[in-house]
Each structure stands twice: as C-alpha cells, then as structure tokens.
Amino acid sequence: MRANRLKTAFLIVCFSVGLYFGFVGDWPMLFPSWAAPAFLVFLIVGSVAYWRVLDETAREAHKFSWYWGSSIGVALVISVWLLDRSGLNFIQSLADAGTLGADPSEAFTNGAYTILILQTVIYAFVWGGWWLRMR
C-alpha cells in the first residue's frame, strides 16, 4: 500500500512539473539555475524510496521491462540510422527541412529525447505485458 501512495505522489509531482512547463513555454528563463538539479535529486530520492518498498515480484517486473524497453528503444533508433545510411537519406531531408532542430546541438538533443521517449514507452508496454502474463 505504501508503494502505491509513493508512486501516486511521485507521478502527481512529475505530471504537475511537466504540465507547468508545457503551458509556460520558455521555461528555462523562469527557473533559477538550481531548479533542475533540485528536481533531479527529488527524482533520485523518490525512486530509491519507491524501490525500497517494492516486493521482489514488482522489482523483477521493473528490471525485466527496463532491460527490454531500453534495448528495443535503442535498437529501433540504431535501425533507423542504419537504414538512413544505406541510402534512404530521410534523416538528412528532415534536417534540411529544419524539423530536427535549428543547429546540430539541438538536433542531438532532440535525438537523445527520442531515444528516451522510445525506451520509456516500450518499457511501459513490456511492463504491462509482464503483469498481464503473470496474473
């Protein structure tokens, strides 16, 4: 029961921060330089507290899901990159159109976010499948 309360509180805080950033827009200008590291510390402390109250079954579900979610997410991105290098050139066409970012560092950051989002989404699907299989 304690794990559910921690998870709920954790998700509400993260959702609220994301919602705020989504509505505000130019969010880096509104926060002091210590806000991002402070939020990262909050995430780490919350994750450790949540992990400590989980039972062994829930821990195994998370480990299994993160392994496969991250592996498949990275494999998808690498596959797209390899296909592009084989002659499709759609990544370059996206870059020429300006959809990847205004400069190379922004394009790199957007690529890193893409990998993180893919890993997280696939993790959620694998985690749900793991629990459905075990029920």
* Termini Cα gap: 19 Å
Counted by DSSP, the helix tally is 5
How does the helix and strand content classify structurally? mainly alpha
SS elements, strand count = 0
For the biggest sheet, the summary is: none
Tell me, rounded to a whole number, the average pLDDT.
78
Could you characterize the architecture of this molecule?
With 135 residues, the chain is an all-alpha fold. It contains 5 helices and no strands. The chain has helices at residues 2-24, 35-53, 56-88, 90-97, 104-134. The longest helix is centred in the middle third of the chain and has 33 residues, at 56-88. The model has no long low-confidence stretch (mean pLDDT 78).
Write the layout of secondary structure elements.
Elements: H1 2-24, H2 35-53, H3 56-88, H4 90-97, H5 104-134
Search tags:
135 residues, flat
Quick summary of this structure?
By secondary structure, the chain is mainly α.
